[in-house]
Design brief:
By secondary structure, this protein is mainly α. It has a single domain, classed as bsu32300-like (Four Helix Bundle (Hemerythrin (Met), subunit A)). Helices cover 80% and strands 0% of the residues. It has 5 helices and no strands.
Length: 143
């Protein structure tokens, strides 16, 4: 496994989770105005960034498992990780929901409201950290 790439994924994921928390707290404490609209936009982009790091992590794990294929979609990738016991059912469901939410943000159809995104992040903060733990666990497998 490419340890340097894995360490970068862990670093990025750690930063993204911190930024999600920071933006979430600011938006929860402040009414919507001309300033918070930019923070909300930032929160959406940070959420997309989180999922990009998940995609990178998934790719590196699938390559290690010799399950990577060109053109494999994220839904199938997550199923493989679940079937190989890399992630459990709870994390699989979280990542699938996050994938759908990321699609709504990225493709701007039925874009989630501020409240919907904040609620999802709030209710799933432990899952964000669990994904980070999976990434860190890959380093332990290495050594």
């Amino acid at each position: 496994m490419n340890e340097e790439r894995l360490l970068k994924i862990i670093e990025d994921m750690t930063e993204v989770i911190k930024n999600l928390n920071d933006c979430k707290e600011i938006l929860k404490l402040n009414e919507e105005d001309n300033t918070t609209i930019f923070i909300e936009f930032g929160l959406k982009q940070i959420f997309v960034d989180f999922f990009i790091t998940v995609e990178n992590l998934t790719s590196i794990i699938l390559k290690e498992l010799k399950e990577f294929k060109i053109g494999i979609d994220m839904k199938e990738s997550l199923s493989i990780l679940k079937n190989k016991y890399i992630i459990d059912e709870k994390l699989y469901l979280f990542l699938n929901q996050a994938r759908l939410l990321r699609n709504r943000i990225s493709h701007r159809y039925k874009e989630p409201s501020r409240e919907e995104l904040l609620e999802f992040i709030d209710m799933n903060m432990d899952n964000f950290y669990e994904v980070l733990a999976v990434a860190k666990g890959c380093i332990n497998i290495e050594k």
